[in-house]
Structure formats: structure tokens, C-alpha cells
Amino acid sequence: MEKHTPWLKTVLLALAGALFLVMFHAFGAQYLEGFTWELGYPIIPEPRYAYTLLLWTCFGGASAVMFTWAAGRAAHTRADEVNALLSRWGAVSDRTWVAAFALLSFLVPVALRYGVLYDAPLTDDESCYVFSARLLASGRLSVPSPPLKLFFDHAFIINDGRMYSQYFLGWPALMAPGAWLGLETLMNPLYAALTAPGIFLVLRRVAGSGWARLGLLLFVVSPTWMVGAATQMSHTTAMMAMVWATWALLRSRDDDAPLWSHAAFAAAFSLGFFIRPTVAVGLGIPMLAWWAWGALRAGDGAARLKAVAAFLVPSSILAGVFLWVNYAQNGDPLLVSYQRMFDYTVENGFRFSPWTEGTKLKNFSSPAQLSTLIKWFADGGAALIRMNFALWGWPLGSLLFIPFASSQRGAGIFWAAGLCFFTLHMPVVVGVDSFAPVHYFEMSWPLLVLTVLGIKALAEAGEAADRSLEATRALSFKHTALVLVGVLTALSLTGYTQLRFNALSRVAENIMMPQRAAEQRGLTNAVVFTLRPFIMYCHSAPTQSTVFWWPVNRPDLDDDVVWVNHIDVPTDKKLMEHFPGRTGHVMYWTKDCKLAIKDLAQLKPGDVPRNTMVKPKS
To answer: What are the pLDDT digits (tens) for 13-30?
Structure first.
């Protein structure tokens, strides 16, 4: 009997872990409507989500401890089998491992795009990026505003006689090949796949091949990264640029650094700036300083001059393109489209705008919405809370291992990049929480590296403890860190990540209702006039998100269904004179939260209310 006691203890620990997990799900089913979240909050988590995080920390954390304890005991009793498994892991070549995870980095976002999001955007920004990509694919930076341009006013679209998006053109330029082929939705998954080799190469340099493989696994199981890559937002490509910039930077610091490494660092950093400038600056300031310190101290004077020249060539070219785009679109090389959007909002009398006259546009001198110092710290804290769960969904927190990275060589530049990014973004609104605190998304790159280094540090400390303690103990410290990572990840897939996917699926169902209604009505070669809000989040309540506008049309208005603003019935009919051969329809939500679609030709003045977003310019 005594002989079997260790196994009995292991089974009891595993059962305790399962019991805590069941209690977590039971609590949500009984008291929190099955963990139905709202995902439209730009700063602090909404109450149901906050309750989920509290319960996940308590019950999920207890479950993680029990399962890790049980698995650690099992690993100790079967140490030979565990070592054999790790050996087989190591026997797979780096090239095969990277290729496999690059493929997964493509397939997982595609599956999420169509299996969870139903091909729906999660923010209004996405269709604006697609509009810009289609413009670039056709060789244009803007198109003339259509006749009666007020019908085509849209959030984040400048429509002052020319139509173009407020967003920087780095991501649309990378999406343009997909736009040309009609495969826009596949471009972010493709760039996620191209990010995977860069992650591996960086981690292999700072932690070793085995730990780099763990980093790829964490990349693929992250709901933040994978859902982000399933959208048409710019964060995936911005992080790709900064990952490859990091690798080129590390290569440029080698004693045998080739000139191309300096040029590659400059090119990747500049691309990141062209996609999301604050991301490149936030992560890049420590990188640029470290590069300059190395380049100006290595070799003789000629070598230093060549390194600086290699850096300046691509960075100067991309800086010139950036300034030229600003001049071509906004008439001033130093005026970015963000600021032009705010100026146009005032010129247009705040009509069809996400802002109102009460909004202090003077605070919008940048995309950031500045506030007091106290609010900066409060918003920074909200970002850390949300990132702590959103990144991997671990019940004990996604930042769990980061403090242990301090002892690892090579961690300094990643600490500096993460802290610099965080400090720069504290004045910025945290961002919608569909898949992450979006304005902090790219901070997850240094967090990934520091997490892997922290896990490595714990594993090395555990191995040292194994050698110093008696071999008869029931738990192997050597494997505890890896076991804990595996347990946390498995729990996340059955808990937090599953709940986030469920919430996103409910959001997507709401977002697609107008387009599905048009399809079910059989609308083709049509113009559909819409009122705000375009989406009503009254189905699958209380789910909420941040899509409020119709999808931006193709630049030449050659869509099968052209979406426009409704003004009033007589004015709507005037627009139809410019679309001969198309049928006109008015879509709006009824008081009982149902979509109504009326034939415009059969409507009389007053049958549909005038749009409240239309008023004389002040």
C-alpha cells in the first residue's frame, strides 16, 4: 500500500485542480451569464470582464498550482521518459521547427478570421485601412470626393474634395498586393507567419535554440497576437517590423557585423515608423541609442563611417517617402493625416464625425488624448492589468515570469524597450479591448522575450536545486518551470482564451447583421442609405464592441452594394440620380431592435427620420 501512496497523492492533486476549474466555470454559468463580456471599453475592463479576471486569478490560479504540483510529481517519477521527450524535441531541426510554426502562425489567424470573427471587422479602423490599400493597389493616394460628398463622410476618412484615410500608409502599402489580388484578409496572417522566423532568430541569440522554440509556441497560443493577426489592423505588421529590427540590431553588434546589418536595422525600424510611428519610437529609442553606441565605437574611422552610411541610406529614403506622402495628401510634409482629419472635422461642422463640438480638438495635436499626470498613471495601470491577462490568458498572469529575466544576460535592451514604450504610451488612451489593449499591443514583443528569459532563469535555478537536494524528494525542480508554462497554457485554452473567443464571436454576429440582412434581402447593384448607429448591440446582449459605421466602399464605388449616409428621403433621392441603374434602399433599426430595409423609391418625406448627424455647419 505504501508503494502506491505517491501515485494516490498525484491523482488527488490533479482532481483538486480539476475541481477548482469546474468551480470557475460553474460560478460564471450561475452568476455571470456564462461569462458574457462587453469588449468596447477603451480603458478599464468592464464589470463582467473584471469579475472574470478576479475569478480566473483565484480559481484558475489554484487549479494551476494543483495541476503543476501533480504534473511535477509525475515528471519526477518518470524522469527518463521526460528526458527522452525533451531529447526528441531537440532532435527536430531548427529549420523544421520554424517552418512548422510559421505555417501555424498563418493558419491560426485564418481559422480565427472565418471561424470566430465570421470575416467581420472588430473596429471601424479596419475598413479604412482596406480603403487605403485598394487606393495604393490602383496607384493612387486619394480619389476625388463623390458628388454630394456628405453622403460619403465616414469616421477616419478625410473627404474635403479628395477622399483618403487618416492612417499612415505603411500597413496599407503592405496590404496592397493582397488588395490587388482580392486577398486582403490573408495579408496579416502572412505577415504573422513572416514574424515567426524573426522571433526565433532573436530568441536563439539571447536564450538558445530550445528556448527560442518555446517562444514560438507562446507566439502561436497568444490570443492577443493571433486575434490581432486575424483582423485588418496595423499592429501585426508593426510588430513584425520591430521584431526584424531587433534581430538586425543584434547582428550589427557582432564583432563581424556586415554592413547590411546596419542597413537592415534602419530599414526595419523605418518601416515600423511608417506603419505606427509611436510604436517605432517607443520601442526604438533604446535600440537606436544602443546601435549608435556600438556603431561609433567599433572598428576604425572608415568602418564607423560605412556603418553610419549603411544606416542612413534606407532610413533617408523611407523618411523622404513619408514626408512626400504627407505633402501629396495634406499639402505640408510635416502635417500628418491624423491632424488633417481633425482640421477637416472642424471645417465640416462635426457632421458625420465621431467627435462633437464639445470635444476639445486642441488636445488632438497628436493621435494621443492627453490628460493629467494622475490619469496617465491610472491608464498605464489599466493597460498593465489588461495586458497581464490578454497576452496569454494565464490564470496567474501573463507577466508572471518577467521579473526573473533580470538575471539573464542580454535582457537589458528588452527591459529598456518595454519601459520606454510603456512610458511613451501612458498619456495615450489604452485602446479598445477586442483582442488587447491595442495601443500597447507591440509592447508584447519585449514582454515575450523577457518571459522566455524568465522561464529559462527559473529552469536553471531549478536544475541547480536538483543537484543540491536529495534525489529522493517527490518533485523535480528542473522541470517545474516548463510544467507550469504547459499547465498555464492548457488552462488558458480551456478557460480565458475560450471565453474571449466566445465574446468575439458574439460581437462578430452583431457586426455582420446589416450586411447579412442586405444579402438575405437579395440586394445587388444597390445603394443602401444607413442611419447611425450602423450596428445595434441589442442581440446577444450585453456584448458590445467598437464598430459603429458602415464599411468604407471601394475607391471607385464599384461595390455590389454601395453604403452611404442617410440624410432625408428627398435628399437621398437626389443622390440616386448619380447612380443610374442602381436601386436605392434605406436601412435602419426599429425601436424593438430589428433591421428594417425600405425601398427608397416608395418612401415619402418623413417616412424615415432625418439623420441627426446632419446639421448646418457652425
So the answer is: 999 999 999 999 999 999
